[in-house]
Specification:
Blueprint: E1 3-8, E2 13-18, E3 21-24, E4 27-28, H1 36-53, E5 61-68, H2 74-84, E6 92-97, E7 107-114
Parallel strand pairs: 5-6
Antiparallel strand pairs: 1-2, 2-3, 3-7, 4-7, 5-7
Length: 115
């Protein structure tokens, strides 16, 4: 069994890789003051960085789960997402409204990708 963990802390790892599949923890903005577009850009940049650390990239994302604190931000988040995602390599995706762990967070994204 080939199992790797990256950026492991006392509560969780940011990435777990097993059998050629990379599982990212939910990514949120580090600066809660940004608007939805700014937070989405920051989260997507974090995903890019973490996928690279695991030897993958956004063209290899299999599934994305997006959590918004307010569905009124759906179009704003989608505009940033569509600029970022690789055309022809869009993953399976779900977007839901959810209360996030911190009130300042507007978006959280979880991805699973092939390595």
């Amino acid at each position: 069994m080939n199992l790797q963990r990256f950026e492991t802390g006392p509560r969780m790892s940011e990435i777990t890789v097993h059998n050629g599949v990379c599982y990212l923890a939910g990514q949120v903005a580090s600066v809660g003051a940004a608007d939805t577009a700014g937070q989405t850009r920051e989260v997507l940049a974090a995903i890019d960085r973490l996928l690279a650390l695991a030897g993958s990239d956004k063209s290899r994302i299999l599934r994305a789960e997006i959590f918004l604190d307010d569905m009124a931000d759906f179009a704003t988040m989608n505009a940033v997402w569509e600029e970022w995602v690789v055309p022809g390599h869009t993953p399976a995706r779900a977007t839901v409204q959810a209360r996030l762990a911190r009130p300042a967070w507007r978006v959280e994204i979880v991805v699973t990708a092939a390595v």
